[in-house]
Amino acid sequence: MTLLLASSLLSPHAGLIFWTLIVFGLLLFVLGKYAWKPMVSALDEREKTIEESLTRAESALEEASRMQEDNEAARRDAERQAQSILRDARDASDQLRSEEVEKTKAQLAHLQEQARADIEREKTQALVALRAEVADLAIGAAGKILDENLDDARQRKLVDAFLDDLPQK
Amino acid sequence: MRTLPAFLLSLFAFAFLAGAVAAQEHDETEEAAAHGEELDALHHSADGFFLDFEPIGKVELPRMFVVRNEEGGLGFEFFLSTSAAVASGEYVADAGGHGEETEAHPVDDDAPSEAASRGGDDALADPLETGIVPAHGEIVADLSFTRHTIFMLLAALLLLVVFLPLGAKYRKGIGRTSAPRGRLQNAMEATVIYVREEIAKPTLGDNYAKYMPYLLTAFFFILFGNLLGLFPYGAAMTSNIAVTAVLAGFTFVITQFAGTKDYWGHIFNPPGVPLLVKPIMIPIEIMGLFTKPFALAIRLFANMTAGHLVILSLLGLIFAFNSIFGPAVGWGTSVAAVPMTLFVYFLELLIAFIQAYVFTILSGLFIGMAAAKHEHHSHDDHHDQTAHEKAVQASAPLVAGSKGNVYHEEQKTVGTEAAMAFSTS
Fold this sequence. Notes:
The complex is a heterodimer. Chain A is an all-alpha fold. Helix content of chain A is 92%, strand content 0%. The model of chain A has no long low-confidence stretch (mean pLDDT 86). Chain B folds into two domains: 62-144, no CATH class; 152-423, no CATH class. Chain B has 14 helices and seven strands. Chain B has helices spanning 3-35, 41-45, 82-87, 111-117, 127-130, 147-172, 183-204, 212-228, 241-258, 261-268, 278-325, 327-371, 387-401, 416-423, and strands spanning 50-53, 57-60, 63-68, 74-79, 91-93, 132-134, 138-142. In chain B, helix 1 packs across helix 11 and helix 6 (147-172) packs across helix 8 (212-228). The model of chain B is unreliable at 21-38, 97-124, 377-384 and 399-419 (pLDDT under 50). Chains A and B meet through helix 1 and helix 2 of A and helix 2, helix 6, helix 7, helix 8 and helix 9 of B.
């Protein structure tokens, strides 16, 4: 009995082969056309769309980051420029100020020099005038004191000699 | 809420067990008397011309025959059931053997009346069990629906019901431009993508798209067929050698059509082989052509049959011990046998998926190997890798992984494909 049933388990039934052929063949055709084709193509399409959008997003991100970088570079550039302008201005002003100071100093020195020269000249003139005055005064005074004792020529000679004995300054 | 599916599954399992137990009890009373047998697990796994709804009853299936009548002409006969065929007097229960014998038996003229007079107590005479033979003429082809045919049609119907609306959905744009909607679409899409990414692409390479319809149909057809066998009163059409043979036949035919010049060259003029060895290699290669689909058919059939046999055998233990040692031991056995059966049942659930996967990936592999464009073999001691070998290597871990085998590169011989095919069974 076991043998008999075992053989029935292993011997293919012709009808079943026939029906399997038909059913599986039909399934393959119908599902292939109306199920797998739209499914697989839809999946492919969706994947492509997703991939494309990812790529697009990535490139947009790249673009944005590049723009940001550009902006950053421009900003840094401007900053650097401003700084250099500022530094130039400061330098220029420093130079200007020192020049001014020099000039003023020179002017002052010049004025001082001039003043000193003026004073020197005035002093010399005063000295000369003083000397003449003193000589006159001395002569006058001596004349008054001596009166007739001395003639004019001898008096002058005497005073001159006196004046020469005086210290120069 | 997560426990609900598990609960339903257990309920199914218990219903299945209850059904099986009831069927066995029925058999025990009926067959034990007739044949002195306790249980026949094979009998329950075998095909039949009826749907078994024990203990409620049996539903006989229509019979269709292409017959050669006594005059030598071909004819087609249709009966609503085996009983109807016998009652019509055209057919009699086959007393000589089982239903597959188509030899014309010498039939007495009074055979119909004899068949009609047979009582129910004579189990051997049950035409459903023994098969029927025509009273006159002979059967050319028995196209009758069997239990497995019905469950195959059911699987096909399920496939259509599930996937045609899904296809329409994708056609409309849901899932094409938008995200998939609903659990069914998400689940099935994930499975389809799995088949594409894990089965088709690694085995078939760039031209995988051409074979996707076949791989998908085969995968889901086998999967649904396997799962239907796990339902109470269900039967797995994949536990029938005829079904698996036809499926393997499809793979075989597609493989041959996919074959490139290199593929045929490898068979009839194996490259890199000494001239004297060629006469040996060529027959081996030709044999290899057929062992591949043969292994496919046997693997699926054997795996699905074995699972059911194990379940039935474990349950059969209860009845065996019951009749040998008495009811107390029988009950005691059930304490161990029922949990073990449940365990095997869940294992079967896993195997249903694994076998669908294995059949599909091996089909893809065979087609891929045939369709692969080979580079020319150099005659160095370590020859260049061909696309063929790359395909084998690429898919070997996948295939071997399902059984925990390690595929060694050194085993790359001419019989590799066949060896691999067997190693996974």
